[in-house]
Design a protein that fits this description.
Blueprint lengths: L8 E2 L4 E4 L2 E4 L3 E24 L3 E24 L13 E27 L3 E12 L8 E12 L12 E13 L11 E6 L2 E6 L10 E14 L4 E18 L18 E22 L3 E18 L6 E4 L11 E4 L6 E4 L2 E4 L3 H5 L6 E2 L2 E5 L12 E3 L14 E4 L5 E11 L2 E11 L2 E4 L2 H4 L19 E3 L12 E3 L25 E3 L2 E12 L2 H4 L6 E15 L20 E2 L8 E9 L1
Parallel strand pairs: 26-32
Antiparallel strand pairs: 1-4, 2-3, 4-5, 5-6, 6-7, 7-8, 8-9, 9-12, 10-11, 12-13, 13-14, 14-15, 15-24, 16-17, 17-18, 18-23, 19-22, 20-21, 24-25, 25-30, 26-29, 27-28, 30-31, 31-33
Length: 594
């Protein structure tokens, strides 16, 4: 048996079989220690240069600096003489393995801002900032990012007096930098490896000392309106965001390096351009505003479209695989002229129903004795109940040339709806969120609907798995002429531990509609009357009950349609590999002010 997971100790389990019983024959102790230190220093100076009935001018100067350092070590030993003494010195030195890490990151910033107001109707803002990051080489460590904005309070103009309206027009332009990458990607550190002659060293990656800040330039225009004496507030914003010098790892020929752990990795560089454009709407309405009963509604609506405009080469494609894919099987494709991270794979054309269906379809597994035909064999070829894939290029063969765009993880729009009620001393908030049009790669179904791993748990949907019947019950089930698909309406392939047909290859059978409406939050509260609480010298006493993630309405078959990026990779959005679902949380609280 292994050690308990206490004081940094982890239990390892190494199963073997003895007389048909699963047992653990090896104990292991792992001890990990780490430390980190972070500091930040901020200074601001604000000075009012001019202030009168016509002009107001304010200047702000600021400086920020921060640094974080971290280090740690981990020691693992095996083959302890006893499980009763979990101390590293008692383990076998031959099995000892030690790892360690140490790193730091720092950033410094200087910025200035000027605010100018004319007649309190025409508002101007100018900002300039300089940021320096340790994540870039000495040549391009600093980035410079200006911005400017103008606002016009139209509702304060004399020619609109008497209309009792609150209207403001806003326009702005700004640049921001991005340095959200790992440390020292501009250089080429040495990587320790084991060799027949002991510890050796090689370059970890190809260096690029010219690596610099990723810059995003955004233009936006907006309109704020207050109507019907404040009963309706409306804000509309349009934006166009252009991102240049994106921080990406280059795709290079295999003879120059690669991205595998055993290869010298390709360099990171500033490549390409990406565009995001869209609009946001925020609407607030005061539906009922009486002394004892109030009801207000807040609605937000967002629509965004992104497109990759340029990459480092006109024909460049950024592929993304998942960690159990072979190198020729892709999950997403990113190329110029298309949105970011589109799902890429095969299109499914149903399930094979009989021998003729297999022989008349494009070749998925060739028959060496029958040129241009599928090998019809239960164990080594294509069989009744296997998935048939579309021959998109019409060459009669199913191969990588038949892969295509099969889904888009980007939603058409997202929204939120919040209703707030108050009746006497009771208050109630009901909040909905939603997304429409995004698609999800539910690749967890490879495990829970597959049979390549006979020890894996299975989903309930496998009860509708393809099964076959026999024309002659006394005939052989290995004779394809005697076998037919008994449930032709199914979309789940037959059970097989070999899967020679690669039924589970990346295809649109795993792409699902990710649209959803979620009752995100309900909060009910009661505030005790002040004349009651002041008797006990209490200024305010409020009880509340809150429920989060109450109910989700969706066609998605996974746990949660709100996925995010797999492994924090923006090119792998909405990839569900068995993500832990968002829990439902109930909270009871008490607000007490003395």
């Amino acid at each position: 048996m292994g050690f308990d997971n206490n004081h940094g100790l982890n239990r390892a389990f190494h199963p073997t079989y003895k007389w048909g019983v699963l047992i653990n024959t090896e104990n292991q102790l792992r001890q990990r220690e780490e430390s980190s230190f972070f500091w930040v220093w901020k200074n601001y100076l604000t000075y009012e240069i001019l202030s009168n009935d016509k002009h107001q001018l304010t200047a702000l100067l600021g400086q920020e600096a921060q640094k974080s350092t971290w280090e740690g070590s981990q020691v693992t030993k095996k083959n302890f003489a006893s499980n009763d003494i979990p101390v590293l010195s008692e383990g076998d030195d031959v099995t000892s393995r030690t790892t360690g890490w140490k790193d730091a990151a720092a950033i410094a910033s200087y910025f200035g801002r000027f605010n100018y107001s004319l007649f309190n109707r025409y508002l101007f803002t100018f900002t300039m900032r300089a940021d320096g990051s340790s994540k870039f080489g000495p040549e391009n460590r600093w980035g410079y990012f200006p911005s400017a904005a103008f606002a016009w309070r139209i509702g304060s103009e004399p020619f609109l007096e008497g209309l009792n309206t609150n209207m403001k027009l806003r326009v702005g332009y700004g640049e921001v930098g991005n340095q959200a990458i790992a440390n020292y990607l501009y250089g080429s550190s040495l990587l320790a490896i084991n060799s027949p002659f002991g510890t050796a060293y090689r370059l970890e990656k190809i260096s690029n000392p010219k690596l610099k800040w990723e810059a995003t330039k955004q233009f936006n225009a907006g309109l704020d309106m207050g109507l019907f004496k404040g009963r309706i507030d409306l804000s509309i914003d349009f934006y166009n965001k252009q991102t240049d010098d994106m921080l990406l790892q280059l795709s290079v020929p295999s003879y120059l390096g690669g991205t595998g752990w055993q290869d010298i990795r390709a360099p990171f560089a500033n490549v390409g351009k990406m565009e995001n454009r869209g609009f946001d709407i925020a609407l607030r309405t005061h539906n009922i505003d009486r002394k004892k009963f109030k009801w207000s509604t807040d609605l937000t609506f967002s629509r965004n479209r992104n497109k990759v405009k340029e990459l480092d080469d006109a024909n460049r494609v950024y592929w993304r695989n998942l960690y159990w894919y072979s190198e020729f099987q892709t999950a997403t494709k990113t190329s110029a002229g298309e949105p970011l991270g589109l799902f890429y794979g095969y299109q499914v054309d149903g399930i094979f129903t009989d021998q003729d269906d297999i022989l008349n379809h494009a070749v998925q597994i060739p028959d060496p004795n029958n040129d241009g035909k599928n090998l019809v064999d239960k164990r080594t070829g294509v069989w009744i109940g296997d998935v048939k894939f579309k021959d998109l290029n019409g060459d009669g063969v199913i191969n990588t040339e038949d892969q295509t765009i099969i889904g888009n993880p980007n939603p058409d729009f997202t929204f939120g709806l919040n209703n707030a009620f108050s009746l006497g001393n009771f208050d109630l908030i009901v909040y909905f969120t939603g997304s429409y049009g995004a698609e999800i790669l539910n690749y967890s179904r490879v495990q829970i609907e597959g049979m390549t791993n006979v020890y894996a748990n299975q989903a309930e949907t496998v009860f509708n798995r393809a099964i076959y019947g026999l024309h002659d019950p006394n005939g052989s089930d290995l004779d394809p002429a005697n076998v037919y698909l008994a449930n032709p309406g199914t979309d789940i392939p037959r059970p097989t531990t070999t899967d020679n047909n690669r039924n589970n290859r990346m295809s649109d059978r795993f792409i699902e509609d990710g649209s959803y409406l979620r009752l995100q939050n309900i909060r009910l509260g009661y505030t005790f009357p002040t004349d009651m609480t002041k008797r006990f010298r209490v200024e305010k006493l409020r009880l509340y009950l809150n429920a989060q993630n109450v109910k989700t309405f969706t066609k998605y078959t996974g746990y949660d349609p709100e996925i995010g990026a797999f492994n924090q990779d923006p090119l792998l959005q909405n990839v569900d590999m068995g993500r832990y679902p968002t829990p439902r949380i109930y909270t009871f609280g008490l607000d007490l002010d003395f």
